[in-house]
């Protein structure tokens, strides 16, 4: 059961969300952005996610979101922006402020629960990955070059968490590596495309379908690789799958047309948040990323390429 802060200046909207989510999650409510920020400041370690209205008195949702993303205590708390403002410019503003999860009013209960599940799963995965790899940091510091194979979701979790320990901002890098490696497995090797993944997530069948395809003899021998190299001034990772590639160009930034989907933001998040550079090679079955080491005490994260 997640602890969520619901922020909306319309009481009826708070009631609707409470009806949709109250049986499965612990909910707190704020009636405008300023009240929400005060609650978050008083309880910085309590909330697993925020459902945030965009247009409110005293402090609007964009201002709250910018404060959250600028504060180290809240950077990994997923924020779902809900709004009737769904023009491409308004969506782009929300995405730039950090609203990787977006709901356009009016929305269905199914859309709300699907987006929320994706947001909470993303956060749990990032935290689990960081914990899994922390014990390997010392060994990895002595590694100059290594190549690893991976095949399934467990392999992705383990390798992403371990390799990210070579970086001072390990949690962010582990998220980025995980997203790229996951794409190599599910899309590259198993052939689950964007539209099909959306249908599977909506039906709650995504993981079962991945496991079914992994067990298919026709795909049983397909593996992907990740090559780690420690260069004098940066670290590099080269991820290769056995698929036919994909039209990767449209996924480097979060297209506003996909802003309301339950998935499709992973590559853009990896590019903008985790790495110094990200480059797909050829048809898209290979991707190379680099990380410039961050000195101890500096902020994590990387500049946009």
Automatic annotation (TrEMBL):
InterPro entries: Bact_response_regulator, CheY-like_superfamily, HATPase_C_sf, HATPase_dom, Sig_transdc_resp-reg_receiver. Pfam families: HATPase_c_2 (PF13581), Response_reg (PF00072). The modification 4-aspartylphosphate is found at residue 53. Keywords: Phosphoprotein. SMART domains: REC. It comes from the Bacteria. GO terms for biological process: phosphorelay signal transduction system. Residues 3-120 form the Response regulatory domain. Gene3D superfamilies: 3.40.50.2300, Histidine kinase-like ATPase, C-terminal domain (3.30.565.10). This is Response regulator receiver protein. It comes from Thiorhodococcus drewsii AZ1.
């Amino acid at each position: 059961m997640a602890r969520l802060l619901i922020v909306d200046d319309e009481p009826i909207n708070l009631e609707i969300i409470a009806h949709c989510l109250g049986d499965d999650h612990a909910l707190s409510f704020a009636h405008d952005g300023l009240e929400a920020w005060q609650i978050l400041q008083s309880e910085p370690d309590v909330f697993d996610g925020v459902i945030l209205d965009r247009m409110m008195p005293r402090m609007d949702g964009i201002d709250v979101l910018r404060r959250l993303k600028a504060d180290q205590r809240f950077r990994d708390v997923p924020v779902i922006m809900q709004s009737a403002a769904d023009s491409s410019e308004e969506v782009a503003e929300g995405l730039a402020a950090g609203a990787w999860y977006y709901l356009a009013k009016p929305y269905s209960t199914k859309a709300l629960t699907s987006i929320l599940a994706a947001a909470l799963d993303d956060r749990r995965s990032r935290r689990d990955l960081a914990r899994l790899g922390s014990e390997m940091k010392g060994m990895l510091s002595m590694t100059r070059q290594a190549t690893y194979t991976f095949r399934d979701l467990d392999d992705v979790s383990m390798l992403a968490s371990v390799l990210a320990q070579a970086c001072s901002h390990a949690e962010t890098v582990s998220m980025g590596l995980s997203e790229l490696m996951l794409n190599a497995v599910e899309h590259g090797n198993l052939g689950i495309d964007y539209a099909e993944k959306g249908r599977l997530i909506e039906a709650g069948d995504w993981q079962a379908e991945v496991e079914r395809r992994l067990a298919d003899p026709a795909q049983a021998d397909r593996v992907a690789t990740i090559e780690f190299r420690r260069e004098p001034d940066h670290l590099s990772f080269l991820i290769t799958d056995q698929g036919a590639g994909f039209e990767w160009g449209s996924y480097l930034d979060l297209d506003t047309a996909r802003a309301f989907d339950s998935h499709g933001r992973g590559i853009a998040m990896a590019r903008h948040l985790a790495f110094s550079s990200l480059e797909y090679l050829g048809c898209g079955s290979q991707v190379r990323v680099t990380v410039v080491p961050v000195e101890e005490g500096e902020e994590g994260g990387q500049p946009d390429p």
